[in-house]
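Re: your question from the hallway

Yes, I did run it. Sequences:
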Amino acid sequence: MTTELYTVLANDLVAPGILRMTVRSSDPSVAPGAGTRTPVLPGQFHMLKTLAPEPLLARPISIHEVAGDDLRFLYEVKGPGTQALADLAAGGSLRITGPCGNGFAVDELAGRVLLVAGGIGIAPFPYLARALHQAGNARVTLAAGFRSLPYGLDDFAAHVPDIRVASEDGSAGVKGRVPVLFDPRDFDIVVACGPVPMMRAVQGICAAAGIRCVLSMEARMACGVGLCLGCTIRTTTGMRRVCVDGPVFPAEEVIFDAAR
Amino acid sequence: MPPADAAPDLSVNLCGVVLKNPVIAASGTFGMGEEVLPFYHPSVLGGFCTKGLTLRPREGNPGIRLHETRAGLMNSIGLQNPGVRAFVDEILPRIRGLTPVLIANVGGSEIDDYVEAVGIVAAADVDLIELNISCPNVKCGGMAFGMEPATAAAVVRAVRPACGKPLMVKLSPNAHDICAVARACEEAGADALSLVNTFNALAIDVHARRAVFDNVTAGLSGPAILPIAMRMTRDVARAVRVPVVGMGGIETGEDAAAFIMAGATAVQVGTAGLVRPDLLPRIVDELAAFMAREGIHDLAAIRGIV
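Structure:
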């Protein structure tokens, strides 16, 4: 884990409010593509911040793909922090801390694996799907739900034979929310990433079916490295930090607070 | 007189404890010190403060704990910690070797709890106790003691006999008269004072039409508070004889130098180290470079000059 300057290679809109950014270390001693840096695991994230003093905090963004030492992020503009990232042009600089968090246990994801994505929760799955494809122990299905038009699906074509899509407004795939796309009993393990209502639903569906499930959690963070205890969630083993104890947790350990 | 080209001496004496430099990591922004090891070894700092410890374990506050503001960060962590006994038995052996100066931050909500917690921690291998009477995020406690001279003095006087280590009291900027609280703590036996803890503040989600935080208010830190914290540091440094550790929004070596010019013996850095986990050693380097550039051989030469 390091904090270093990176240069933006590309930062393109792929759907309304959704961007894909590729960055490369600004350190001239790092040969692009050498893969000599700290390996980045699927499901880990990085803390991204522009060089401007404001907004103050870096933003946690999950790793979308890795090519050599270049990092790629898929992110949604949700507020001033992600807007500042979206405003970066190719050639621009940013400071990145990472890789952060535990990531997915790729070795434990075998057999019939279902990836459940809600909206921008799809971001960590292309890299995971590629890793699972390379490991060769899993047959992967993707169930992706969107509010409206889908995005990011083309990243899966090479590694995921079964791609299912739902949209709340019916503009693509099955009309409805992502649980309409699957029966957990058809799978050995379910991996979910998305908004809390979806995560709570997937946790419940899998628990009822007795199917193992892991959740990649999202939280507001200040540091991303375990210093502040700002991103904790309630779990069966106490309050735990999403940034260093997660973001990936066994679903049965996560206790969702009552809906506000 | 040292020769003009001698490396500047950054060391400071904080109530008998010698720090190799005046930059201390602030409580609650430095985990238990281990978390920065991927970035640097904490022994390069003057010292660090542990996460706030209480007699019994606390799981902290529910709901949102962080909120970014313009040039600031609001937090409502609520002193999540494993309790002083788990700290002494399980954590202290792991972290003792990380720093030559380990400062244990102790909070509480009842005087008896403060006394017992300080007794346990001060008997262990720590170098200094920082008594937190200024946490705005714990109900019926913490900051309540730090708001008035009489209550502040009561807790310091009660804790003093149980504390076999130098005792530094962390003050709240929310006190009605921070200098009066500072003097009361000094008279009650404090060996040093640190300030400021966070400013009690409010953020409102206008769309939801309610406060962002479950506790309604939360503590504000970061660059936004620097000028006020520096003024308070100067006021308190002139009001007491014991050393004062200043903090509030420090991001650079020159910020640290400014607090020392305002009268601080040492400084603490908090929020800036969250924004950039590798920052604190750079502040030490920047301060050394500033001193070298300005021909300052010893921090005593600039302490309290403003």
